Amino acid sequence: MDPITSALIHASRTGDLPLLQEIIDQKTDLEVRDDKGYTPLIIASYNHQLAAAQLLLQSGADVNGKDTGGNTALMGVCFKGYADIAELLLSHPHINLDALNGNGGTALMFAIMFGRNELTQLLLKHGADITITDNRGMDALEIALQQGNEQGLLLLKQHLSINK
C-alpha cells in the first residue's frame, strides 16, 4: 500500500479530520482499498467515525462501495449497531438500501441477525425490502426466527401489516 493510501486508511479509522481533509485536498482517489478490501468510508463507518464518514461522503466517496465480500458501509454499521452513521448513510441520495453482499445478505438482514432493532426500524422506515432472500433462501423474517430476535420479528410483522 502506498503512503497516501496508508495515511487515508489511518485517518479514516481514527477520525483524524485534518489529515483526512489534507489527503482529500490532494484529489486522492477515495475508492482505494486496504489489504482487506475496505474503502475509507467502510473503515470510518465501521470504526464509528461519524465526522470522518460525513467528510468522505461530502468529498465524493461512494456510499455503495463494497469490500471484497460485497459488504457496504451500511451493512457494517448494521452489524455494529451505529444508528447515527446509518442515518448519515441513509440520507445520501444514492444509497442502495437493499444492496446484496456476496452471500445475498442485506443491511436489514444484518440488523435482524445481530438484534440491532433500532436499526431495523430505521431501515424499514426508509423502505428496506423484507422479501429479499439470501443465498440460503432465507428472508428477514426467517432470519429473525432463526436468531430468536422476537422484537425484530414483531417489527417486521408490523411493517408488513401496515404496508399491505
From TrEMBL:
Entry superkingdom: Bacteria
Annotated SUPFAM superfamilies: Ankyrin repeat
Any single Pfam family the record assigns to this protein: Ank_2
Keywords: ANK repeat, Repeat
Alphabetical list of InterPro entries matching this protein: Ankyrin_rpt (IPR002110), Ankyrin_rpt-contain_sf (IPR036770)
PROSITE patterns reported for this sequence: ANK_REP_REGION, ANK_REPEAT
ANK repeat residues: 36-68, 103-135
Gene3D superfamilies cross-referenced by the UniProt entry: Ankyrin repeat-containing domain
Iron found in the keyword field: no
Protein name from the UniProt record: Ankyrin repeat domain-containing protein
Organism: Pedobacter panaciterrae
Organism lineage: Bacteria, Pseudomonadati, Bacteroidota, Sphingobacteriia, Sphingobacteriales
